[in-house]
Amino acid sequence: MKTESTTKDNDFALKKKAIFISLFFGIFMLVIKVAAYLLTGSSAIYSDAAESVVHVIATGMAVYSVLLSAQPPDESHLYGHGNVEYFSAGIEGTLIIIAAIAIIYNSVQTIILGAQPEELDYGTILIGIAGAVNLFLGLYLIRKGKATNSLALEADGKHVLADSYTSIGIVVGLVLVLITKYYLLDPIIALFVAVNILVAGYKLIRESVKGLMNETDKEILNILVETLNEIRKDYWIDLHHLRFWKSADWVFIDFHLSIPFYFTVKEAHLEEDFITEKIAEKIPNSDVRIHFDYCDEILCTYCNYKDCKYRVKPKTRDLIWDVKKVLGGPVNK
User: Domains of the chain: which residue ranges?
Assistant: First the structure.
């Protein structure tokens, strides 16, 4: 039976292996694309090579962020180091946008001054090989990123996948150039590549900002509300002030739960253990903290606990734990 520690170790091993594979192939692809550019002088191939430069730098940062995020919490970082992955994704997105600007500059210059690429047939073959390799690498990184809840791996995988689509598009465009001999298509293709890269960079920065600003993940919120309603016991009266935030592969969750006033500390902790276990089944790597509130006679009208010996009022109203309720304050008495 796998322990939580074993699972974490396995996830880290998968992350580490995946990110170093990405770094190795990133450098290899960069060498191929730079060789193709030097061989041809093509603006479109230049755009692909420029993005690969960014990818190698960004992957190096992703390696650092994966290694750092795996470090346990310490006195300086009580919640761990997972947020470094958001910084990594944001910097990667910024670098991608800078690369896009460089590509636009080079393409416009080529259109104005005019240039005719050479040896396009060999260059096209090299870029095609690079695109095929990156396609498989990108899918691999995204799959491993989702399996280990690593934003850094997913961001790197999406970048590699976008890079592969770019390469494939360039190959199609260069084939058209070879057929038509219309060489102005070359810098025009590079401009389209630049726009695509700009969009990819924006999306990465957006994901980074979402993480750093603790933007509410609607999917996790719905899972939490559904799970708490599924396991709800009749003596759990009111649930409110639900909050959660993500840090790398961890989700920190806390909320208030009203239970009968006569429950012992031990009984309350048993309830917390039960809730924590059930949430972990739906949200792996979750850290749950519950603040227990004790009920009073006013809450009797909402309480479903039929065996309560201290009830002073009959139950007359239902308390629905929907999203609005659990995010808000205690029930309006």
Answer: 4-212, 218-327
37 or 232, which is more confident: 232
Any idea which residue has 């799970």 for tokens? Answer: 227
What CA–CA distance (Å, rounded) separates 304 from 40?
A: 76
Among the listed residues 255, 256, 258, the one whose alpha carbon sits nearest the alpha carbon of residue 234: 258
Q: Give me the pLDDT at residue 9, please.
A: 63
pTM greater than 0.70 (yes/no):
yes
Which comes out higher in pLDDT, residue 45 or 159?
A: 45
Q: Is 198 exposed, middle or buried (0-12, 13-18, 19+ CB in 10 A)?
A: middle
Cα→Cα distances 126→47, 57, 75, 122, 289, Å: 14, 22, 50, 6, 54
The set of residues, in sequence order, having a beta carbon less than 8 Å from that of 170 and lying 6+ positions away, is: 44, 45, 47, 48, 127, 131, 189, 193
Find the helix packing angle between 43-69 and 4-40, rounded to 10°: 160
CATH (residue range 4-212): 1.20.1510.10
Whether domain 218-327 has CATH 3.30.70.1350: the reply is: yes
